């Protein structure tokens, strides 16, 4: 239990604490608080403590800081009481007496005593004579550091006349016109960089578009492997062409694409309600070429989940004429065409952004209905 | 401070006290307290204490150091006074107790000085932690 060993342990603990504290976010007074913690730890160590609890050290450091502040406050208030702005030694001694009155000191009851003979002073003198002189381990710069502000010149200081009569000369100058004027020489460069950026963005969009529609094509091709799917060689070009303009796509032969009944499973609808854009692809897979080019272009041009809001009411029984209107960025009014079949027409909303409770009830009813129909929902298409 | 009286002894007495104080303040400049001057100046300036004299800042620093030393000494005595928990197999050797500054000792020591520091003994995960099973079911 040698003092030297204890000191090393103490210092290493201090260093650990310091490194730990570096990771924390620093507040306004962090530096001073850290120093106060170090200082208190040093004092404790000189008395014989070997280690400390973190919270105990924080508390003691806080108490020490408050003690200093309390002395300062009391001393300055005594000075102000004596009609002075600056404090002198007697203010400090009075402050110490005030703080020491809790614990008590010799001669405290004698209110007429001379301050130079105060008990607190004697205690301090005794303490200084007995204590080991252990200066603080780290050299500290004077803080807080005051940054020198470079003030802007005023009109009169810069010996300039203000541009207008209403501007007085003691106000700071206007900044140089160079700083805010656009130069013609830099415009070309900007436009070039802008063009490059636009190209990059377009490329990204095309890539996203392609990947999404590839996936869509794959799903479609699960049933039939014909025309729309091209070999790997020309795949990219043909797909791009097909994606951009459906009229340029290779025409389908009759019975080429066996489209199953567009009886999308009710469960699928219910599950995917609210997914928005992604749902649109699952819908599209069953309806081959009925998509409008505008839908494709607008849908594919956005990568990732988009704000495309579509509302389609699609009758689920039988193959009916499908028509939908697509609204971009707005909730669109959609019209429903009555199917020719007389079967029970059920409509469902693909994107239930504004579903009513009645619609939800309808959906539940659909679900129950579907469970008992001849044509069970074909999940294999998905 | 410069009390001019006819009596010799009180004058000497007062003079002694004055000289003692001045000498003490002068000696403070030689003694380096553990509390750095910059820290003390920072906090004194924060609380409105204005004095260009460095001897006064040293006085405040020394007073604070004395205060902390007193508190820490009391805490140390509390720590030593507590019976050691560890049982040594070798009874001949004296129990080596690790002197740790704990919240418990510190709060007891600070209470003497008028500072009330209350510390949470433990923190529970859930509101029902530590309750009887019967009451927990409720």
UniProtKB/TrEMBL annotation, chain A:
The keyword Transcription regulation applies. It holds the Pfam family Bromo_TP. Keywords: Nucleus, Transcription, Transcription regulation. Its main location: nucleus. It is found in: Nucleus. Residues 334-382 are annotated as: Disordered. It comes from the Eukaryota. The keyword Transcription applies. Residues 334-347 have a biased composition (Polar residues). Transmembrane segments: none annotated. Gene3D superfamilies: Histone, subunit A (1.10.20.10). Signal peptide: none annotated. Residues 29-105 form the Bromodomain associated domain. GO terms for cellular component: nucleus. PANTHER family: TRANSCRIPTION INITIATION FACTOR TFIID SUBUNIT 8 (PTHR46338:SF1). Belongs to the TAF8 family. This is Transcription initiation factor TFIID subunit 8. It comes from Salvia divinorum.
Automatic annotation (TrEMBL), chain B:
Its main location: nucleus. It is found in: Nucleus. It comes from the Eukaryota. Pfam families: TAF10 (PF03540). The keyword Transcription regulation applies. Keywords: Nucleus, Transcription, Transcription regulation. The keyword Nucleus applies. One of its GO terms (cellular component) is nucleus. Belongs to the TAF10 family. TAFs are components of the transcription factor IID (TFIID) complex that is essential for mediating regulation of RNA polymerase transcription. This is Transcription initiation factor TFIID subunit 10. It comes from Salvia divinorum (Maria pastora). The gene is TAF10.
């Amino acid at each position: 239990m040698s003092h030297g060993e204890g000191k090393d342990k103490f210092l290493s603990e201090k260093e650990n604490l310091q490194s730990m504290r570096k990771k924390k976010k620093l507040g306004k007074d962090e530096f001073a608080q850290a120093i106060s913690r170090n200082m208190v730890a040093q004092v404790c160590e000189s008395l014989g403590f070997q280690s400390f609890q973190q919270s105990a050290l924080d508390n003691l450091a806080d108490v020490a800081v408050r003690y200093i502040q309390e002395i300062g406050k009391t001393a300055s208030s005594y000075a102000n009481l004596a009609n002075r702005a600056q404090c002198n030694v007697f203010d400090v001694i009075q402050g110490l007496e005030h703080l020491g009155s809790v614990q008590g000191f010799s001669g405290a009851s004698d209110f007429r005593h001379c301050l130079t003979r105060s008990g607190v002073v004697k205690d301090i003198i005794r303490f200084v004579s007995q204590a080991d002189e252990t200066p603080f381990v780290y050299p500290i710069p004077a803080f807080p550091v005051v940054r020198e502000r470079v003030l802007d010149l005023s009109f009169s200081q810069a010996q300039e006349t203000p541009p207008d009569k209403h501007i007085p000369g003691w106000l700071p100058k206007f900044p140089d016109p160079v700083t805010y004027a656009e130069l013609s020489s830099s415009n070309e460069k900007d436009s070039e960089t802008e063009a490059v950026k636009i190209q990059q963005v377009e490329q990204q969009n095309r890539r996203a578009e392609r990947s999404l529609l590839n996936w869509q094509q794959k799903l479609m091709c699960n049933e039939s492997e014909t025309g729309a799917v091209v070999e790997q060689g020309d795949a990219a070009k043909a797909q791009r062409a097909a994606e951009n303009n459906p009229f340029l796509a290779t025409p389908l032969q009759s019975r080429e694409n066996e489209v199953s009944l567009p009886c999308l499973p009710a469960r699928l609808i219910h599950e995917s309600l609210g997914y928005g854009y992604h749902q649109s692809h699952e819908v599209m897979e069953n309806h081959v070429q009925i998509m409008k080019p505008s839908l494709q272009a607008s849908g594919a041009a956005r990568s990732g989940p988009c704000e495309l809001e579509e509302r389609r009411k699609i009758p689920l029984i039988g193959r009916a004429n499908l028509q939908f209107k697509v609204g971009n960025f707005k909730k669109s009014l959609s019209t429903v065409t009555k199917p020719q079949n007389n079967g029970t027409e059920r409509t469902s909303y693909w994107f239930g952004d504004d579903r009513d409770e009645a619609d939800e009830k309808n959906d539940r009813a659909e679900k129950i209905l579907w469970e008992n129909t001849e044509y069970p929902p074909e999940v294999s298409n998905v | 401070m410069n009390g001019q009286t006819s009596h010799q002894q009180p004058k000497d007495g007062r003079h002694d006290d004055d000289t003692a104080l001045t000498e003490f303040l002068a000696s403070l400049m030689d003694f380096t307290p553990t509390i750095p001057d910059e820290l003390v100046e920072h906090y004194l300036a924060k609380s409105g204490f204005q004095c260009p004299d460095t001897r006064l800042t040293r006085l405040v620093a020394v007073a604070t150091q004395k205060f902390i030393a007193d508190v820490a000494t009391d805490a140390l005595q509390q720590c030593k006074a507590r019976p050691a928990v560890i049982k040594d197999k070798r009874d001949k050797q004296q129990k080596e107790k690790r002197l740790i500054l704990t919240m418990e000792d510190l709060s007891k020591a600070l209470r003497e000085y008028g500072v009330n520091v209350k510390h949470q003994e433990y923190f529970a995960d859930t509101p029902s932690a530590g309750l009887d099973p019967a009451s927990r079911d409720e």
